[in-house]
Amino acid sequence: MARDTTDQTPVTSVADLTAYLASGARPKERFRIGTEHEKFAFFKADNRPVPYFGEASIQALLTGMAARNGWEAIIDEGNVIGLADIHGNGAISLEPGGQFELSGAPLENLHQTCKESNQHLAVLREIAEPLGIGFLGVGGSPKWTFAETPRMPKSRYAIMTRYMPKVGTQGLDMMYRTCTIQVNLDFSSEEDMRRKMQVSMRLQPLATAFFASSPFTEGKPNGLLSWRGDIWRDTDNRRSGLLPAAFKPDFGFADYVEWALDVPMYFVVRDGHYHDCTHITFRQFMNGALRGEIAEWQPSMGDWTNHLSTLFPDVRLKRFLEMRGADGGPWRKICALPAFWVGLLYDDEALAAAEALTRHWSFEDVQALRDAVPAEALKAKLGTTSLFDIAREVLTISRAGLKRRNRLNGDGVDERQFLAPLEEVLAKKSTLAEDLLALYHGRWNQSVEPIFTEYQY
Fold first, then answer.
1. Which among 72, 178, 193, 343 is least surrounded, fewest beta carbons within 10 Å?
2. Is the pLDDT confidence value at 251 over 70?
3. Domain for residue 2, yes or no?
4. Could you tell me if 64 and 88 are in contact, meaning their C-beta atoms sit under 8 angstroms apart?
């Protein structure tokens, strides 16, 4: 999230919070696709991470991008920590360790999404190359220790850095040493939200397996295929993972609100300053817990919006749905992730087929699969069924959904082309993580250094 909101509309009841989520519903013809992708910045000369300050730095990249795109700088305590298109068509933000993120514009089809990513990376390379900076697209930092990883001067991250060790063992690694690709998708009603939430929550471990690309930590194999996926198993379990309520037949906006109300807050923003609120939940905030601690202690809709952005379930509900299971990856994977979910969720027949396939998967079934996938990827099993076999069936459903959407580019080609990287995974029976491990034990001579040249954007 590039910019924390400052909407001062008072919150008067829990019903206000539910209504906020419900207000995201829109007609199907107005459904859009918003893709986010993160990448690690490094110096090409020696594969060191790029600091925030300095002549060749993250700050310099942001300044250069602002001049090139004409985007507005987002300032936090005097530091540029992101950029926003003045017309609302996308933003650039920084993750805690300097991971550089594009939050894409809401677009109508996947051809536009892929073009947007390609244009962003082209402009970024134009700014970065004179500074000797490159970008790596994988799910976990393959070389740098936590101590070597830079920290971005973003106020919310300072609060999170202090808080994470209190609530889990891997929260700091999540913040500083992982990258993801995500897609944000719309819903038309509470029922439509429920169906999409339930299907995508059940299938999120499959996305983790398909996109597994984080087998290295500090220069060595870590025994996993998705280190990032494993990190999320113990980051902050009160605000992340699977949501039991989402498996209820009547799950709705109010259920998500009730869960969110009892998750500890990170902060509130007042007059541009961040106040640490990790000692209270949003429900306690609404009941006056900050009275006497800060002058403007009453909750606003901006506070609620910011709180929603600090919740990390595998599928996050705002006024849209965020698919959060995938590792970061190369350029083609940036296009493949939204294609996978759009094919499943934006076509009525595909959504019905995905529902039929997953309807009887219990919370316990999906949790067991989620626990197995970081180490086993597509070799994991749901009961006695191989995830590889499930992947073939799900990809067939997605492909058919994209065919029925029939969104064509200028050459008359539909959106199915963007599923090619996932079809290759199934054809080879090997994820990117397994390909990387084969290179490490083979041509790379047990070194991760070549990943910075062979897998940079």
1. 72
2. yes
3. no
4. no
